Description:
Blueprint: E1 5-9, H1 15-25, E2 30-34, H2 48-61, E3 67-69, H3 81-98, E4 105-108, H4 118-132, E5 140-144, H5 157-165, E6 173-178, H6 179-184, H7 193-203, E7 209-214, E8 216-217, E9 228-229, H8 238-246, E10 254-257, H9 263-278
Bound molecules: fe (iii) ion (2 copies) and zinc ion (ZN).
Amino acid sequence: MPGLTIGCHLSSAKGYLHMAKTAVSIGASTFQFFTRNPRGGKAKALDPEDIAAFHAYAEEQGMTVFLAHASYTLNPAAADARVQEFARETFADDLARMEATPGQLYNFHPGSHVKQGVSVGIEKIAAVLNEVLRPEQTTTVLLETMAGKGTEVGRSFEELAAIIERTELSDHVGVCLDTCHVWDAGYDIAGDLDGVLETFDRTVGLDRLKAVHLNDSLNPCGARKDRHACIGEGHIGFEALSAVTRHPALRGLPFFLETPNELPGYAEEIARLREAFDE
Ligand code: FE
Ligand code: FE
Ligand code: ZN
């Protein structure tokens, strides 16, 4: 499917082939899933047959990219050493498993500094990355832009840039821009998308941007809440979100919906966004 590379978050319960087929059935050309139970449980064993069938099907469909999302409960910036260690172990295990599907994207939430302060949080997150990244890995690890609720690290592009600067194998590191999160963090992507992307380019570099989470927001710009809305039903609006998919600086990136929908709702959002993209 040429044109916009777009998909949505799917359940991984039935494996890779099932996710790819579900994606195609709703007009998607990519998909996202959690690598394991969001609560951080043990991951299901990989099924080589499923992966081989997925690769064959994806090739047939021209599906080249997916995004694996780490459990959002992990906190590599945690004050408690055991909590930080659990994040490190889980990332390392996820990344080892990702090599069964080479060349894909793995996204994680940078974490919350709790009461340690943002600079300690940044150091801890970079330290975890430096322990889990391997020179030979083919997966690109993405830091997600955060809304800044509580003590979340990564609500400003500067914070993400600071983490990346401290990462030794930064060739393997990129950013996933979540439209709801940056909006909630105070970046006005509806009023000044060009300006926000210029700021991103100056701080992080647009070459680091590898994926976009396309969500509307239930709250006004700067609210720091992180409540996703369906496309066109929030404060960002359909026009502004469609403009994100059409921006020349973002051409070719994969877009992932994390809107409060079931499959038919996702199919509708994908169709509307494709229609506006192709106009
Ligand atoms: Fe996320
Ligand atoms: Fe997101
Ligand atoms: Zn969110």
